[in-house]
Amino acid sequence: MATLNMVQAIRATLEREMERDERIILLGQDIGRNGGMFRATDGLQERFGEARVVDMPLAEGVIVGSAVGLACSGLRPIPELQFLGFGSQAFHQIEGQVARMRFRSQSRYPMPIVIRAPFGGNVRTPELHSDAHEAKYANSPGLKVVTPASAHDAKGLLTEAIRGEDPVLFCEPLRGYRLIKDAVPDEDYTLPFGRLRIARPGSDVTLVAWSAAVVVAEQAAELAEQEGISCQVVDLRTLVPLDVEGLAKAVSATGRAVVVHEAPLTAGFGAEVVATIVEHAFSALSAPVLRVTAPDAPYPFSSLERAYLPSAERSLGAIRRVMGAA
Amino acid sequence: MSILTTSTGGPTPVRILAPDGSVPDGYRPPLPDSELLAAYRLMLMSRRVDERAFNLQRQGRLGVFSPVNGQEASVIGSAFALDPTRDWVVPQYRELPAMLRQGYTLERFLLYCMGDPEGNRMPDGVNLLPIQISLAAQIPHVVGLAWGLRHQGRDSVVCVYFGDGASSEGDFHEACNLAGVRRAPVIFFLQNNRWAISTPVSKQTGADSFATRATGYGFPGELVDGNDFFAVHEATLLAVARARAGEGPTLIESRTYRMGPHNTADDPTRYVDPEELEAYRALDPVARVRSFLLEAELLSEELEHRMRAEIEEELAAAVAAAEARGAGRPEQIFDHVYADPPPRLLDQRDAITGEAQ
Predict the structure, then answer these.
(1) Contact across the interface for A106 and B139, Cβ inside 8 Å
(2) Which listed residue, of B29, B110, B217, B230, carries a Cα 20 to 30 Å from B350's Cα?
(3) How far apart are CA A68 and CA B237, in angstroms?
(4) Are A249 and A197 in contact (CB under 8 A)?
(5) For residue A79, is pLDDT > 60?
(6) What is the distance between the alpha carbons of residues B72 and A206, in angstroms, rounded to a whole number?
(7) What is the pLDDT of residues A2-17, one digit of tens each?
(8) Chain-chain contact of A57 with B178 (C-beta, under 8 angstroms)
(9) Is B271 considered catalytic here?
(10) How far is B229 from B254, CA to CA, in rounded Å?
């Protein structure tokens, strides 16, 4: 068991799976010789050759679109979007093609494609690099959306994604690439999709989050603890499939819930979480479910991002409100 | 030696088969007689499907349908340059005869037009991707498919069909660029039929040729008379040979004319000049091949009559088989969405199929 940061866990998983299955090929911008903008593919081209770790032209649409054809040929491509914000330039290929090809072809052409993309803010990037766009992909039937919050989960969920037959958008928390570090077993393992994780036990309020927002929720839980409020932190791990049963059970245990996410409020995935809680745990609720999110404004330039992103302090405010204390 | 080796992709389309069915002295078609007749038969079949499908649509027995009318030489001349056992066709939605040549069936096509997703299921072993409605979205797929097949040691060539309208999409550019970089064995078969629904080609591009775009991607472009079966066929043969030899992609602009409406929901009398349409009728691609075959004494009135009778029978059998399948079942909404569907989707399936019972 080694302590790895998130990007090390991802790199090691890619290497392990490429050894296991020669049908896997990686494609993306700067992933070969440069080893990826964040070193997620460091050394892999050296190890597996230019035919399997492919530096692509700067064009998201054809990075994803050619992956569709590679999959039709029998390969298992893993395209990388340098940032999820740039995924908008491939959205028609992801939503209209990757997600639907199995249906359109009636399973003649399954799409075992894992689209990897760092996302999320607080790392002072230029415009359009930091957006948390997971909700629009979650609203694209045929696709699965995976959002690990720990290095351990990144390995298990990425292995599950690569070995599965369905297309996956694998969202990697950019600010957690090096900050998130935890124990990662050396041996192979998979984590099933649609099973949330209780990141922290607690009895008064359930905080629901995914990806980097899990860290924010954990910090908020620490602050609440000092005020005598016990918070349970739920890490959804995967948005599609959503662990409906696990979510209802977790919220029913406390009767109060706050959802924390980086995307803007309106039509963010938090809305789906709240609706699911209301549908499946209404009778257990003793307070309205609140959301702590980015505002409905474009992701700002970097000097403003701390005020824009949900913080532990703002989350604490919501925790106090659901406890009737504010 | 191909007759096209001197083509520059300039603004004059290469022509071999004249509108009266004559060919240059000494020209020998590169196809055996049996294949020439098979191609002509497929042209007749395509025309007949156009008529029959239109009637079925008007009777409410078929959904939206896009006729091939006018583009038969373009679609069939190119398809006959491919080897269906190893080469691939990636269609848009107006290339039924090329799909039939690859091994797709009329029955499936009718099912597709009736709104049954099973109709878009290409039979196992048939080298076709499904019909694509999102214009140009199939072009990036083709580059990946050709590259992936080569990566696995196969010598396949992939021919993708799209139109002058689709060439305006970003996917066309991104795909051509990548194909050039990777020298992928792709034929970009651009059917310039002069119309994207009601938008004339003059509003689609400021250039006088699409073929010349190939230069910018580092591979050859050919401009051919798309109503000339032999010109289309020869250009495609050349492109297949290049691709097979590892020399990379070719862009072929097949300059043809859509003689019918965009589809069954379109009324081209609102925007097509009837005189222009008449002028193109004189260049009918099927009539040209017919004149050639009659002159060469490969075809007789009697043989043609027999072909038409067979086609009628095949078509009637396909319509009967497709209609016998009946309306779609609600379960089909959910089948084939995921290999491993989320539990909540299964709940939705149970709710909807339960209501339907």
Answers:
(1) no
(2) B110
(3) 27
(4) no
(5) yes
(6) 65
(7) 999 999 999 999 999 9
(8) yes
(9) yes
(10) 10
**Are B149 and A70 in contact, with CB atoms under 8 Å apart?**
no
The pLDDT assigned to B327 comes to 86
- Give the confidence band of B5 by pLDDT, cuts at 50, 70, 90: very low
Q: Is A111 exposed, middle or buried (0-12, 13-18, 19+ CB in 10 A)?
A: buried
Query: For chain A, where are the alpha helices, taking DSSP H only?
Result: 6-20, 44-48, 60-72, 91-93, 101-104, 134-138, 151-163, 176-179, 213-226, 244-254, 269-281, 305-308, 312-322
Sheet of A24-28, strand order: A53-55, A24-28, A76-80, A114-119, A168-173, A144-146, A238-240
- Please report, for chain B, the start and end positions of each structural domain, with discontinuous segments joined by +: 33-326, 330-357
CATH 3.40.50.970 for the A2-184 domain, yes or no: yes
Beta bridge partners of A209: A235
Domain regions of chain A by residue span: 2-184, 197-322
Give the position of tokens 């790392």: A123
pLDDT category at B8 given cuts 50, 70, 90 is: very low
Residues of A in contact with B142 (CB under 8 A): 69
Mean pLDDT score of chain B, rounded to an integer?
Answer: 95
CATH superfamily of B33-326: Thiamin diphosphate (ThDP)-binding fold, Pyr/PP domains (3.40.50.970)
The pLDDT confidence band at residue B6, using thresholds 50, 70 and 90, is very low
Q: Residue B191's closest CA among B165, B211, B166, B162?
A: B162
Which residue type sits at B293? L
Q: Which of A 170-199 lie inside 8 A of B, CB atoms? A: 193-194
The 10s digit of each residue's pLDDT in B84-100 is 999 999 999 999 999 99
Residues in chain B within 8 Å Cβ distance of A107:
121, 336, 339
| Inter-chain CB proximity B129 and A72 less than 8 Å | yes
What is the second-level CATH architecture of the domain A197-322? Answer: 3-Layer(aba) Sandwich (3.40)
Give the Å distances, CA to CA, from B158 to A103, B102, B162, B185: 22, 12, 13, 6
